[in-house]
Amino acid sequence: MELLLQQLFNGLTLGSVYILVAIGLTLVFGILHVPNFAHGALYLIGGYLTLMAMKGLGVHYFVAIIISMISVALIAILMERLVFNPLRNAPAIHDKIAAIGMVLFFDALVSLIWGNDYQRMITPYGDSVTIFGIATSYQRILVIVVAVVVVILLQLFLKKTMIGASIIAMAQNREGAFLVGINANAVAMMTFAISGALAAIAASISSPINLVFPAMGHIVILKAFVVVIIGGMGSVPGAIIGGLILGITESLGATYISNDYKDMIAFLLLIIIMTVRPKGLFAKGVY
Amino acid sequence: MNTFKRGLFLSLLFILAIVLVACSEDGKETKNDEEKAPVSTEGSKVEELTIGYTGPLSGPAAFYGEETLKGLRMAAEEINDSGGFEVDGQKYTINLSTLDDKYLPNEAAANAKRLVQEQDTKFIYTPHSGGVYAMQVFNEMEDFIVMAYTSEPGVTETGNKMTVRIPPRYDRYIEPFTKYEMERFGKKIAFLPTATQYGKDWADSLRPVWEANGGEVVFDESIDFSKDTDFQTIMTNALAKNPDVLFIGGPSQPTALVLKQARDLGFEGGFIIMDQAKLDEIAAVLGGSYDLLEGVISTPPLVTSRYGGTEAFIEKYRSENDKDPGSESGFHYISLYILVEAMKAAGTVDDTEKIMAAMDQGAKNLPEDKEVYYIQGVDDDGGFLPLLRMAYVENGEIVQMGEEK
Questions:
Q1: Are the CB atoms for B326 and B167 separated by under 8 Å?
Q2: CATH 3.40.50.2300 in chain B, residues?
Q3: Nearest alpha-carbon partner for A46 in A144, A147, A121
Q4: What family name appears in the similarity comment (chain B) (predicted)?
Q5: Which residues of A touch B251 (CB under 8 A)?
Q6: How distant, in Å, are the alpha carbons of A124, B35, B119 from that of B377?
Q7: Domain B47-168+307-386: CATH superfamily, name plus number
Q8: Does B66 touch chain A (CB under 8 A)?
C-alpha cells in the first residue's frame, strides 16, 4: 500500500512536468496548427536561464524563474515573428522543417554559450521530507503545487479575460475570429509567449530534481508530444489528463511490470487510445 | 510601419543575444586544432604526423568527448612546443584531426574511413566501445591502429592485432569490490546500472561473482539516462526489496543524482559504482562533501593519484580549464606519449605492425615526469597494464587500496 502511494506520488510529479510542457505545445497547435518541435528548445533555454540568473546574478530561485519566464516568452515571440509568421502561407511541411531547424540551432547555441557540462541547480527546497509514509522532497511538492496553480491561473485567464477569450475564439474558428475583429498577430504572439513562459516554468521547477544539460529538452519534448496526442491536439484539458495518465502509467508500470518496459507500456497506451479515439481523448471539445 | 516593426524585433533580438552572452558564466573560446609546424633550428624540414580522433563532440555525451580530447590536446601541444619528436633521424610534430561521431558506432566507423582516406592517418582514437567494435571490422585491412579508450575487456580479446586498450579493464575490479561491500554491508544487492551496452556488460560480469560469493541479486533493472528525467520511481522499487548494496553507474553527474535519490529515500547501505563515474565529480555535484558517499567503492579520482607526472598535469589542466581533471583526460594524455615512445622504439611512424610490437617498450619508456598514471607495460593483446587501484569512502574520507608501484 505504501509502495502504491509512493509510486502514485512519483507519477504525479512526473505528470506535472509533462502537463506544463504539453499545455504550451497544445496551445500553439490549437491556434496555428503547427506542431512546434522547437518547444523543447524553449524548455532547454528556460532551464539554463534560470540557472544562470541564480549563479550569475545571484538572485533568489523564484526571481530567477521570473527572469527566465520573461526571456523565454520573448524568445518564443521572436520565434513566431521571424519563423512561423512568415511561413503561415507556405506549404504545411515548411513549418515543421523550420521547427526542426530551430531545435538544431538552439541546441548548438546552448552548447556554445554554456558548454556541454551537466550542471546542477541547487534550490532552497532540496531537503527530503516524509509525509504520510511517502518519502519526498520539498522540491517535488513544489513541482506539483506549481503545476496546479499554473493550470488554475491559465484556465481563469482563458475563460475570464478578453485576451484569453480571443485565444479560444481563434482556436475554435479562425475566420469567425477575424470577422469579429480579433487581431490574429497579437493572439499568435500572445500564445507563443504563454507557451514559452510555461516551458520556462516547467524547466525551472524540474531541473533541481534532475540536471541542466544540453539534451534536457529532447527527453521532455518527446513525452510532451505523447501527452498532447493522447489528450487531443489543441486541447488544454486533454493535455492535463494526458500528462497525468502518462506520468502515472510510467511509475506504476515500472513498479508492477518492469522498469525496462515502462516506455513500451506508455506507447502501447498511446496506440490503444489512438485506435479507440483517433483524434485523442478531447479532440472536439477544444478548451 | 512594417520597417519600424522589423527594426524593433531586430533590436530585441540583439538585446536578447547580449543577455544570453552576459548570463554565460565563462566565455569559451574555440580552439583551432591545426598546429603550425615549427621549423627546427637545424633547418631540416619537420614533418607533420596526423593522429585521428573520433568521439562525441555534440549531443548528450559531448562533455565526456571533450574531456578525452583535452588530454590528447595537452599532450600534443606539449610535444609540438618542445619541437616535436624524432624517429629515425626525422623530426615530426603532431597534428590532431578530430571528428564528431555523436557517440554512434556507425558514425565512428565513417569518420575512421574518412580520416584514413583523406589524411592517411595510422592512429585513430575513440572513447567508446561501440566505435571500437565498428572500426575493428576494417582496421586491420586498412592498416590503422585503434586507440581504444574503453574499459571493456572484450575489445582486446577479439584477436584484433591493431587495437590498443588504454584504461584498466573493468573486470579486475569486480572481485575486490564484491568482497568489500559484502563484508561491510551485506549480501543483498540491487542492480541499477546505466542502460548502455557497457552497463549491461558490467552487470553481466558482476552478477556471477556476487552470487559465487554467496550473495543475492534482489533487483535487476537499468536506468536510461537518455530517456528518464526522474529516477525516483525505479529507486523506490529497488529499495522496496531491501538491498544492502546498490550497483549504479553511468556518467558521474546523473549517477550522483541516482545516489542522492537513494539516500533521500532512506537508503543507508553501500554502493558499487561503475568505473565510468568519478568519485570527485560525484561529490562535486552533491555539494563537495563525501558524507552522502559513505560506503561507496569505485575507482580512485585522478586528483588523489601521486605519480611522477600527476601533479604537473593536474596543475596545468586546472590553469587551462579552471577545474579538476578526470581520469579520461589523464589516460589520453599519457597514451599519446606512450604512442610516441612506441614509434621512437620501433623506428617508424607508419609501419603499424612494428609500432604495435613496440607498444610495450613505449609504455616502459614513458618519461617519469609525464607519468600521470603508472603503466607497467602493454600486454600481448594491446591492453595497457596500469596498477589496479580502488577507492572507498569511510567516515567521510576517500581511502585508497590496491597495487603499489
A1: no
A2: 47-168+307-386, 171-298
A3: A121
A4: Belongs to the leucine-binding protein family.
A5: 118
A6: 50, 30, 30
A7: Response regulator (3.40.50.2300)
A8: yes
SS (H, E, C) A163-187: HHHHHHHHHHCHHHHHHCCCCHHHH
Give the nearest partner residue to B253 out of A81, A108, A118, using CB atoms. Answer: A118
Q: Which residue on chain B is closest to A215 by alpha carbon?
A: B60
How much is the ipTM here? 0.79
**Closest CA of chain B from A284, distance in Å:** 31
CA A200, A202, A206, A210 torsion-angle sign? negative
Residues in chain B with CB shorter than 8 Å from the CB of A258 are 221
**Residue A141 to residue A117: CA distance in whole angstroms:** 27
Residue A118: which of B227, B233, B254 has the nearest Cβ?
B254
DSSP 8-state symbol, B44: P
- Amino acid, res. A144: I
DSSP H or E run through B248: strand B245-248
Could you tell me which CATH class the domain B171-298 is placed in? alpha beta
pTM of the model: 0.80
Q: What would you report as the CA-atom Rg of chain B, rounded to the nearest whole angstrom?
A: 23
Determine contact, residues B76/B118, Cβ cutoff 8 Å: no
Q: What is the pLDDT of residues B131-180, one digit of tens each?
A: 999 999 999 999 999 999 998 888 888 889 999 999 988 888 999 999 99
Sign of CA dihedral A106, A108, A110, A113: negative
Tens-level pLDDT at each residue, chain A (287 residues) = 788 888 899 899 999 999 999 999 999 888 888 888 899 999 999 999 999 999 888 889 999 999 999 999 999 999 999 988 888 888 888 888 999 999 999 988 998 898 888 888 888 887 888 888 788 888 889 999 999 999 999 999 988 998 888 888 888 888 888 888 888 888 889 999 999 999 999 999 999 888 888 888 888 888 898 899 888 888 888 999 999 999 998 888 888 888 778 778 878 888 888 888 887 887 654 44
DSSP-assigned states of every residue in B341-352: HHHHHHT-SS-H
Query: Would an 8 Å CB–CB cutoff place B268 in contact with chain A?
Result: no
Closest CA to A241 of A273, A272, A209: A273
How many angstroms separate the CA atoms of B254 and A210, rounded? 8
Cβ-Cβ contacts under 8 Å between A and B: the total is 126
Among partner residues A3, A78, A215, which is closest to B240 by beta-carbon distance? A3
Please identify among residues 163-202 of chain A the ones whose CB lies closer than 8 Å to any CB of chain B: none
Domains of chain A by residue range: 2-215
- Longest distance between any two alpha carbons in chain A, whole Å: 57
Which run of H or of E encompasses B60? none
Q: Which residue's entry shows cell 518519502? A: A135
Q: Within an 8 Å CB–CB cutoff, is residue B63 touching chain A?
A: yes
Which chain B residues contact residue A262 at CB under 8 A? 233
